[in-house]
Amino acid sequence: MDRIWHEALDIWRSGGWAMIVLAVNAFLLFTLGLAVKVKLRGKEYRKVSNDSCKLMIEKPLDDKGPKSIRNFIQHVMKCKRRDHLTPIFKEFQHDEIAPFSRDLRIMRVCVGTAPLLGLLGTVSGMLTMFHALSIGSGGEKTLAMVATGISEALVTTETGLII
Predict the structure, then answer these.
(1) What DSSP state is assigned to residue 115?
(2) What DSSP string runs through 13-68?
(3) Average pLDDT along the chain, 163 residues, taken 10 residues at a time
(4) Rounded distance between C-alpha atoms, residue 122 and residue 129, angstroms
(5) 116, 123 in Cβ contact below 8 A?
(6) How far is CA 64 from the centre of its chain?
(7) CA 94 vs CA 87, 89, 91, 111: distances in Å
(8) Alpha-carbon distance 44 to 156, whole Å?
(9) Residue 49 region by backbone torsions, left for phi larger than 0, else alpha for psi between -120 and 50, else beta
């Protein structure tokens, strides 16, 4: 296990400075995903089935089912006209759905930028490689510098695509 950890760390280091930016992106993505999961679990939406919704409609004053859905059903049941439903649906959307939409929008941005950040690392690695070729006079030292640039380019590209 210790050997695997050291190999992973060596690969990480070979990615250069762009790996830090990719790590921040991945951390933000993971944190937001975890926050969305915790929020959803707190809402208890998974416990709502078709049968429980029918019960909430038939007996709207019972305390069974998630409070937000019970309140929503109670408000809808009180409406006498269809045009009065629109504000209730908008309020439900604002209170229940909007926070998730915001977090998911940020997550989409993180997912979309990860390959671009990997490409940024690729360009950086290629610049390192071309710099080594321009100052090198051949030999093992130049080849080691070129290999470092290629490694940086490939590791960051792969990491960006994995994220």
Answers:
(1) H
(2) HHTTTHHHHHHHHHHHHHHHHHHHHHHHHHHTGGG--HHHHHHHHHSTTS--S-HH
(3) 86 87 94 90 68 69 67 72 77 79 91 93 89 80 85 90 91
(4) 10
(5) no
(6) 33
(7) 10, 9, 5, 25
(8) 39
(9) beta
In whole angstroms, what is the distance from residue 61 CA to residue 77 CA?
11
> Tokens in use for 156?
């960051």
The residue count for the chain: 163
What is the structure's pLDDT at 94? 80
Please tell me what DSSP assigns to residue 60: T
Whose tokens are 């089912």? That residue is 65
CB 145 within 8 A of CB 126: no
DSSP state letters, 59-96: STTS--S-HHHHHHHHHHHH--SGGGHHHHHHHHIIII
Written as six digits, the tokens of 18 are 């762009």
Helix axes 139-162, 98-135, angle to 10 degrees: 170
The whole-number pLDDT of residue 141 equals 81
Which positions ≥6 away from 127 have C-beta within 8 Å?
A: 149
Q: 75 with 88: CB under 8 angstroms? A: yes
